[in-house]
Design brief:
By secondary structure, this protein is mainly α. Helices cover 53% and strands 0% of the residues. α2 (28-38) runs parallel beside α4.
């Protein structure tokens, strides 16, 4: 298993064209990660699109070399932004109960949220008692 430092050095070598003496064994997930990082650049999307079909067809090492030959040379690789997991707010108990009653998906709940805020959430205490959430 590769550590993140090795993955970043391989990613940098894709752009700087400095050959790597030894490519550690990596998995298809690493190839997918390289692809996600590369297609963040709009000018490379059209170039990379024909290569996507090979992610699962060839070995990860060969896919790395395929990317290596198709990505134009640069002084440095583009920076990778670290994405933090978005933390969802805990849903209100009344809203959760209404969602269960009407069997709404998350998308349907988002659509109905303004209506819920205008009606049910104005009288939250009443609906908590009505649904048996508060005694």
């Amino acid at each position: 298993m590769m550590d993140f430092k090795d993955i970043l050095s391989l990613y940098n070598s894709l752009y700087t064209k400095v050959p790597v003496n030894f490519i550690p064994e990596h998995t298809v997930q690493t190839s997918i990660m390289f692809t996600k990082w590369v297609i963040r650049e709009p000018e490379l999307v059209a170039k990379m699109k024909p290569l996507f079909q090979y992610i699962f067809a060839i070995s990860p090492k060969h896919y790395y070399w395929l990317l290596f030959t198709h990505i134009p040379k640069r002084a440095t690789a583009p920076k990778i932004k670290k994405y933090n997991k978005s933390r969802k707010k805990a849903e209100d108990k009344v809203v959760t109960r209404v969602r269960e009653i009407f069997d709404w998906t998350a998308g349907e709940l988002d659509i109905m949220r303004p209506i819920l805020d205008k009606t049910i959430m104005k009288e939250k205490k009443f609906w908590e008692r009505e649904f048996g959430l508060k005694f």
